[in-house]
Amino acid sequence: MAAARSSTRRSVAWTSSSKSSPPKGAKSKAVKSKVTPAKGAKSNVAKSKASPAKTAKSKAVKSKVAKSPPKPAKTVKSKAAKSKVALPAEVNDRSVSGAAVVGLPTVRRPRQVIPQALMERLISIGMAGGADFAEVYAEHVTTTALVLDEGVVRSANVNESAGVGVRVVKGVQVGYAYSDDLEPATLLRTAQTAALVARGTGEPPPVQVSRRALPEHYRINDSASDVSLARKLEMLRRADAAARACDARIRQVSASWVDSSKSVNVASSRGHYAEDLQEMCRINVGTVAFGEGGERRTGSYGGGGRVPFGHFESFRPEAVAAESARQAVSMLGAVEAPAGPSTVVLAPGWSGVLLHEAVGHGLEADFIRKGTSLFAGKLGEKVASELVTVIDDGTVAQGRGSLNMDDEGNPAQRKVLIENGILKGYLYDDLNARLMGAQTTGSGRRESFRHAPLPRMTNTFLAPGQHDPGEIVRSVSKGLYAANFGGGQVDITNGNFVFEVSEAYLIEDGRITRPVRGATLIGVGPVALRNVSMVGNDPRHDPGLGTCGKDGQSVPVGVGLPTVRIDDITVGGTRMG
Ligand SMILES: [Zn+2]
């Protein structure tokens, strides 16, 4: 067996600062461990977006709605030595874009992060104390993140990180330990730490794993990871110029780019080995429109997914910028939101975030097993209007939430969770499925090797209905049209949700009229589901910009919805109406 590579961590941070600072302290080699009972029942999803601009109002942190500039996945914020260097002047210069190195169109393969024989040895150590199950998760990630703020490169980061997590399960006890040092001796200690949960003594049993075949939902032969920083920066400059050209009132623009390439290897005591290469990229444009009397309105739009770089030839930076600018300008002159019960029409696409919060989290098996979700014990019961069919589908081609395999090495699935209003199923990871006598649905996900997996959503959407979207709007004499959401959160235990509607309009006599500001939607998940009275025939996925947070772990997700009418939902606003 060849020795494992020594740590491959590298980290370079470019900033527009001209100051150069030396790498920070030596890397830590400590093995970290924790026992992971799933805790709080709160969760949230946030649209990942560029910070619109400096003057944009900052949201209360306690709403858990992340509106920070896109940052490299948290996995790269390891204690890896970081060096900051001044941004080379030429990167800030349009002239270098022609010097971009164009990679040959090759399909990339996942890396073997540590040798398979070492993974088998770690599983064996994990099982030595009489555990029920042991698993090794190894990950290697490279991330590139660029922010162009007011036409100036504010930051350009290229990060690389790798690590291994070992999980040992005995009954309901979970031992989890991880290391970002890939030296075999360190990893053996990591496995011994995780195995402490079993507390037994015994000889490590022989373990052999064999490769598991997986489907492919995102074969990428034109990876953003192979594209030069200069070409990505050029896209941001095009977006910046396009946003300003849209309307003279757009006077602040922030554009950002993030791409990542993650190799995942998973092996377990069941004898499976599975690996996947998970690539992701996204562009975002934040804008601020200035109106009369110091009025300022923000817009934000973007998207991507597990897509090739060529995706941005059709999902063009100019179009992204124009949509962001349209949102900001549309909200100028907005009236205060009328508060109180109202009929609400949800615009198609990103409004699916409501479904994700109001329903999706409550169907995750950890909350079900502990009885903390109000959907627990309701399989086969009517929990929504018969117009409501909710699907979580990890197999959507190139979706932001799509997975060939989950982070336990199981193939992602298409799950019908609610069918015509009847509760049909839950989202299971392997551990909760086993404890509940069910089968995993390929829903075990984790933010990085530092975390044990949890049952999570992938791409969650509402199936289309019969109504024409125009007909739905015409059916409302007085109500609110929710065109765009900032983000929101739900309390799983009672289903209470709150959503910030970032772009909303009054509906008056069947027509969309004046923009309103400061609107929130407040409700209880199952009640809102029962109050769905019309579902459009215009299904739409969001453009690829959602990040879901749960127990401190962020994972990319997709959402989707056709135009939907919900009766009697509470609008929180600033004006009684
Ligand atoms: Zn979420």
Task: Give the topology, please.
Blueprint lengths: L9 E6 L16 E4 L6 E6 L35 E4 L29 H12 L5 E17 L2 E19 L2 E7 L4 H12 L14 E2 L17 H18 L3 E19 L3 E19 L5 E10 L5 H4 L2 H14 L4 E2 L1 E9 L6 H6 L6 H5 L20 E4 L20 E6 L2 E2 L6 H7 L7 E2 L8 E2 L3 E4 L6 H6 L3 E14 L4 E13 L2 E7 L1 E6 H6 L1 E4 L10 E5 L2 E8 L3 E9 L2 E2 L1
Parallel strand pairs: 1-4, 8-10, 12-22, 13-20, 13-28, 19-26
Antiparallel strand pairs: 1-6, 2-7, 3-20, 3-25, 5-6, 5-9, 6-7, 9-10, 10-11, 13-27, 14-15, 14-19, 15-16, 17-18, 20-21, 21-22, 21-23, 23-27, 24-27, 25-26
The chain binds zinc ion (ZN).
> Into which percent range does the helicity of residues fall?
10-25%
CATH superfamily of the largest domain: PmbA/TldD superfamily
Overall 3D form: globular
Mean pLDDT comes to 84
β-strand number:
28
User: What would you say the CATH architecture of the largest domain is?
Assistant: 2-Layer Sandwich
Major sheet, described briefly?
Answer: 10 strands, mixed
Number of separate helices: 10
- Structural classification: alpha+beta
Q: Distance between the terminal alpha carbons, to the nearest Å? A: 73 Å
Beta-strand level of the residues, as a percent range? 35-45%
**Poorly predicted ranges (pLDDT <50, ≥5 residues)?**
1-43, 49-104
What is the subunit arrangement here? single chain
* CATH overall fold name of the largest domain: PmbA/TldD fold
Number of domains: 2
What is the name of the CATH class of the largest domain? Alpha Beta
